[in-house]
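Incident log, support desk, overnight shift.

02:14 A customer reports that sequence design results differ from what the structure should imply. Their input is reproduced verbatim below. On-call engineer (initials T.W.) acknowledged and began investigating.
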C-alpha cells in the first residue's frame, strides 16, 4: 500500500491526521536561543567588562528574543479530522475551521524540515499559521495532505 493510498484511507475513515507539532519545536528553539544568548552576553560582559559593546549586545539579543516570542503564536500544532482543520498555538489556544476556508498554502523544504504556511479565514478575520514538520522518507508533505483532504471535503 502506497503512502497516497494510506492517506486516502485515513481521510475516508475520518481518522485524525497529525500535520505537525510545531509549537513544541518552536518552544525548544526559544529555550536554546535563550541559553546561547545568555552565555554570549556573559562572555562579552566578562571580556569587555561593562562596555558599550556588552550593552548593545544585550539590547540586540533581548529584542530578538521578544521577536521570537511574538512569532510563537504563528507556529502551531495542527491536525485534520474529517473536514476540519484543528489548530493549537503556543499558548494552547485552540481553533477549528473548515478545510474550505483555507485560502492559500505554500510550502518549502530545507534539510528534511517541511515549512508550510497556511492562510485561512475564521470568524471574518484572516489568520496565517506556520507548520513545521520533519519529513521522513515514507511521509507526505503537509501541503499534499491538506490538498488531498480538501478534494474529499468539497
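02:41 Re-run completed on a clean worker. Output:
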Amino acid at each position: 500500500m502506497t503512502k497516497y493510498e494510506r492517506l486516502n484511507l485515513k481521510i475516508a475513515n475520518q481518522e485524525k491526521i497529525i500535520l505537525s507539532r510545531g509549537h513544541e519545536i518552536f518552544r525548544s528553539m526559544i529555550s536554546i536561543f535563550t541559553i546561547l544568548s545568555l552565555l554570549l552576553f556573559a562572555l562579552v560582559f566578562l571580556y569587555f567588562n561593562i562596555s558599550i559593546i556588552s550593552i548593545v549586545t544585550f539590547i540586540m539579543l533581548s529584542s530578538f528574543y521578544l521577536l521570537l516570542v511574538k512569532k510563537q503564536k504563528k507556529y502551531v500544532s495542527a491536525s485534520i479530522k474529517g473536514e476540519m482543520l484543528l489548530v493549537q498555538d503556543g499558548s494552547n489556544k485552540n481553533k477549528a475551521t473548515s478545510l474550505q476556508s483555507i485560502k492559500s498554502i505554500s510550502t518549502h523544504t530545507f534539510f528534511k524540515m517541511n515549512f508550510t504556511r497556511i492562510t485561512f479565514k475564521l470568524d471574518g478575520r484572516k489568520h496565517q499559521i506556520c507548520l513545521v514538520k520533519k519529513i521522513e522518507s515514507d511521509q507526505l508533505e503537509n501541503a499534499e495532505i491538506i490538498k488531498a483532504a480538501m478534494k474529499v471535503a468539497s
